[in-house]
Amino acid sequence: MMKQKKIPMRMCVGCREMKPKKELIRVVRSPEGIVSLDPTGKKPGRGAYVCRSGNCLTRAIRQKQLERQLEAALSEEASEELKSTLAQIMAQEEAAGTDDG
Ligand SMILES: [Zn+2]
């Protein structure tokens, strides 16, 4: 009789906590082997999730969890690219969410 809303949960590869999917951001390795952020969650390829925080992304990269999860090698350049893209996305979302102040 208990009605439960099913919230899709995913594990952050940075802090390894299970979180609702919408609180995480997807990192995807394309079929061509390119690793990039996937804010829409719809890109084809092998995916991993991190919290929407630079800390978890940095940790996932440093501890090689991202590479392991994606089965892809991540160059320093690609890592920096991911971090700056995440920072941009978060800045955009912050800007979009500040019209109530
Ligand atoms: Zn996390």
Structural category is alpha+beta
The H-level CATH homologous superfamily, spelled out, is: YlxR-like
This entry's quaternary arrangement is single chain
Q: Could you tell me the strand content as a percent range?
A: 15-25%
Widest sheet: strand order? 4-3-5
Number of strand segments = 5
Provide the domain count: 1
Roughly how many Å is the radius of gyration? 15 Å
Number of helices: 3
- Based on Cα principal axes, name the global outline: globular
Fold-level CATH name: Hypothetical Cytosolic Protein, Chain: A
Order of helices and strands: EEEEEHHH
Question: Which stretches are low in confidence, meaning pLDDT under 50 for 5 or more residues running?
Answer: none
| Biggest β-sheet strands, sense, barrel | 3 strands, antiparallel
CATH architecture: 2-Layer Sandwich
CATH class group: Alpha Beta
Question: What is the mean pLDDT?
Answer: 92
Ions, cofactors and other ligands present here are:
zinc ion
Q: Give the CA-CA distance, first to last residue.
A: 42 Å
Report the helical percentage.
25-40%
Task: Provide a descriptive summary of the structure in words.
The chain is α+β, with helices and mostly antiparallel strands. It has a single domain (10-96), classed as YlxR-like (Hypothetical Cytosolic Protein, Chain: A, 2-Layer Sandwich), CATH 3.30.1230.10. It is 36% helix and 22% strand. It is built from three helices and five strands. The chain has helices at 54-62, 65-70, 76-96, and strands at 9-11, 18-20, 24-29, 35-38, 46-51. The strands form two sheets. It has a three-stranded antiparallel sheet with strand order 4-3-5. A two-stranded antiparallel sheet has the order 1-2. Strand 1 and strand 2 form a beta hairpin. The protein is globular, with a radius of gyration of 15 Å. The model has no long low-confidence stretch (mean pLDDT 92). The structure holds zinc ion. Zinc ion is lined by residues 12, 14-15, 17, 50-51, 56. The site of zinc ion (ZN) has 7 residues, from strand 5.
